[in-house]
Amino acid sequence: MSGGKGSKQQAGGVSMAAMRAHLESACIGYRPGDPTAATPPAAMSPAGVPPPPGGLKDLDLRQMTMAQLHAEAAATQTRDVFAALLPDPPGVAPERIAYVTGHGPDESGAAAMAQALSLKCDICGVQLRSVKEAQDHGDATGHAAFSESIEAVKRLVCRECGKTCRSETEWDVHSKRTGHQAFDDKTDEAEAMDTEAQMKAAQTEEQGGAGGAGGSRPGSAGGSGEPEELVPAEVDAELLKQIEEMGFPAARATRALYHSGGSSLEAAIGWLEEHQGDADLDEPLMVAKSAPKKKLTPEEAKAAAAELIKRARERRERDEKEAERLREQERIRAGKELALAARQEEELRLKRMVEQRQREKEEEERARAKIRAKLEEDRRERRRRLGLPEELTEEEKEEERRKAAAKAEEERRRKLPIKPVEVGEKMRALLVGMKKAHPGQDEGLKTCWQTLLKMCGNVYNSPGEDKFRRVRLTNPAIQQRVAAWTGAVDFLQLAGFQKDDSGENLEMPEDKVNKLVLEVAGEQLNSALSNPFFGVL
């Protein structure tokens, strides 16, 4: 990108001087006014002859942008890097510009670059819409290499709130945060950038903040309108002495060091070459007392850059967390919707099944009614053939009712479970024997019977639970409450438990669970616990 004429103080991260230095880096081998520098090569012919060796031998063509190519042409033809970058470069061979920049003899490099739609950071590749954004980007990242681009910055404008998003990702985050769905893509409406004018405006703004580029003017300080005390500009005394020894007046040397940033002798000489026609070049430089800022040391600059990078990283992490939060909300919402849809589908399926079953029952009932009607008609027909009345007599009806009652009673008795009486008697005998074997220990015996009742009840209520169907006899609690009492283990074996091969555990296979036996065991234990005269007789 080209730079405007004038000086630029360091301000934050990226300055006009830094941008200009980026362009001058394309012409390392040649420095105007340096007698020791290589002589610039002859003009290039339009036939496309390769550039001759000489002042541009150190130029790295692989890293050159359009602005740097233009700078090469300026260095080759005018010995002034920035002269050829102005709208009307004096003394530049058109054919040389055409070869270097790729434009015809009737197009100047500046005119071609005026069609740029954005600025691109040569380090990270981010696209920016103005010189001001480039400076802000440099403040945040420390990057100082930019070039013009004909690719417009993406502009997605929300129709509801007017927010401008620069990428699909940014729009996606905005849409999820606000619920806005409609946007207009105004990328194609981007206007060509006037980089030269923007750089001059930025340069003028910084010069105003520093007391003026061409000298200090009595005037406002920070736009307040109140005059501020002016003092002589302070520069590096060692560099000032070196420039004076080269034959430059003190005022001119002071201006060169002050406006070039005071970083090097080469920068000051370059500034003098660029501003040798200024009318106030030999006047003493006066600046506002509060305007000069202390130049940062390399360590301070590094710390400031690290702080800016840290803030950018934290901002990026916050954005990523917000995007992750929105994605999680969307995932939960989608999951709830899917669960609701599945539940509604299941309810509809069950409803259809119930309706189908009801239709089948009604159809079956109609078929049975039809069969009963047919049987009744057959019965009446048989009675007519036998000479009997079609309707049954009272005696016949009574006989039919008696047969139906007998059949129902037989069915009820067939379904009624038969309790194992013999097992119940054996269990009662064991409980009576336990009471007689432990006289005077009613409380301990009661605890034993309660434990047996609980164990049998657990198996009866949850026959599928393995933990209820397995008793470890070595368990201290089981030893104290069950195994220590005579007949307790035998009672469990009558209820269906069996000892394993080791003899240390009682197990009841699931297929051997007999609820009738467990019910009898519960009745005997309840009788022993509730009857105060149990086992007395």
Automatic annotation (TrEMBL):
Biased composition regions of type Gly residues, renumbered to the chain: 208-225
Disordered: region residues: 193-229, 392-413
Superkingdom to which the source organism belongs: Eukaryota
Gene3D superfamilies named among the record's database cross-references: 1.20.58.2190, DNA helicase RuvA subunit, C-terminal domain
SMART domains: PUG, UBA
PROSITE patterns: UBA, ZINC_FINGER_C2H2_1
Protein name: UBX domain-containing 4
Source organism of this protein record: Chlorella sorokiniana
